[in-house]
Fold:
Amino acid sequence: MAAKSRKPDDEALIRALIDDVTNAIRAKDAGGVAKHHADDFVHFSLAPPLRAAADPKALDAWFATWRGTISYETRDLSIVAGNDVAFCHSLNHMSGVMTDGEQTDLWFRLTLGLRKVGGAWKIVHEHESVPFYMDGSMKAATDLKP
Structure:
């Protein structure tokens, strides 16, 4: 009797999806990022506006502001998955050189909401944030490191 092949568990599938998005960001591949977004994807990005939808053209334009590849790391990833919804959070590090020569080195918080669509996990909500100094300056605390 042949052994049944075991389907990967949902946490492993989500981890593989996040790894694929990470690699697409490093390669500045907007299509590689967008293929993991659900049709009703909502993005609360570090950049304005307050709320955005999936827009590979805007992502391509942002990628064009970077010189060479983007260094991108996901750390302390936590995943909770149910039958058809999941969420995860992590600390992410992004660094590189912008086309104007500015050096970027930023840690930020990332939360993802996912839903199974047609049997595959898709990102329905992405929220990136940095804390801000509550000393009256209202400045983003972009100098923090884990």
